[in-house]
Amino acid sequence: VSAPSPDTPTATAGASSEDPLAVALVEEVGASHVLTDADLRAPFETDWTRRFSGTARLVVRPADTAEVVAVLRRCHEAGVPVVPQGGNTGLVGGGVPRGGEVVVSLSRLDELGEVDRQASQVTAGAGVSLATLRAHAAEAGLNYPVDFAARDSATVGGMVATNAGGIRVLRYGATRSQVVGIEAVTVDGRVVSRMAGLVKDNAGYDLAALLTGSEGTLAVITRARLRLVPSFGERVVALVAVEDIDAAQRLLAQVRAGAPSLEAAEVFFAEGLALVLRHAGGITPFATDHPVYLLLECAAHRDPTEELADALGEAAEVLDVAVATDGPSRARLWSLRESHTEAINAEGIPIKLDVSLPADAMVTFVERVHTVVAEVAWSARAILFGHLGDGNLHVNVLGADPDGHEVDDAVLRLTVQLGGSISAEHGIGQAKLDWLPLYREATDLELTGSIKQALDPAGLLNPGVLVPRPARAGHRPP
Length: 478
Ligand code: 2HG
Ligand code: ZN
Fold this sequence. Notes:
Helices cover 32% and strands 19% of the residues. It is of the alpha+beta class. The chain is globular.
């Protein structure tokens, strides 16, 4: 263990004195925040799905923007690549090392500013969790509108870096729609800051929008200025059983047109519900099983139950319906949808595809996806669920070799053939990198490469993620 910093005299986590970069980083952040021991690094080296892992040279945990500057300068001087990491809840291997990088964990940047009620905005450090941010907004009588199941662990930096979506995109947009300002550190340790909170600001390129969704490949995000929305006190959730995805879409179009208070429209299928009931518990509100379930939530200042009921009307598509208005009952219905990820992980390591489709291709996709998966992996099964209101399906394939590429290839080719996107909300990471050229045209990829070259000429920021690069010796494709 190298010389402990003055503030951590009993540090044991510290870096091996044999690694000069570790010694340099200890000088910047203190020995207890430079993790070189394998068991201390381990939680930062494998992603949530367990499909992606790699060995980091070390993990460093700066406390604030100034320390991020110092860390990036040191890594840049040493020519060592870095992998920024937030709550490590990403699902495409974008926040874990490929091998030999420095993992820069932003979790200690957890400063949360006072809510600016006049502007309806708040400034949050990269390490603030989504749950903390949402609770903080709620205390001020406002709402941070992005939300998803990993809320307790996912952090602002990771959400901005991936343009996280979630369950309320239908009404409020994804993270990019909430980002009013950003502070980030360039690969060589310069700070770029646009934190004035100006909603209208047309003075040049929108760097905040560019960095949002850049997956740690252009700069390291340290703070964000975020938009808040009104907090609605009245909510209703309806779980509607329908015959097939076609019926779910027809019904959703009807509810969308009739209920302006609609804020979520999620879908899941019988196979997924069975897994949830087996692994995550919960009870179905229905006496019999149904093929497809549409979960709808409306929110308003006045009880939106009647509005939703009117919008559903006497629709023939509705086979059965369960309605919940109080908090615990709503949460019970939501957990049937939100527990899918966890229940699937309990069965094995899934191959996760996260696609979006044009509305008129959704039925064909759902019909064909099981066949294309079976053709390449006879023992595999595809569990579908997702955000029907955004045309976004999560295809989770169990029973296939997680190191293989055939299933990804089959599902993503089908998606592109049908006019969809190979990543709706989870990003490209390392998981989808090989398929980006299938989806984006050559000129598009050239421009992407130019932007990367301009901001990170040496390719030290999250290499192997999002930006295709020529194959190099020893590099194993995802
Ligand atoms: C969700 O919608 C998340 O619950 C996770 O995006 C999806 O596990 C998945 O594939
Ligand atoms: Zn999702």
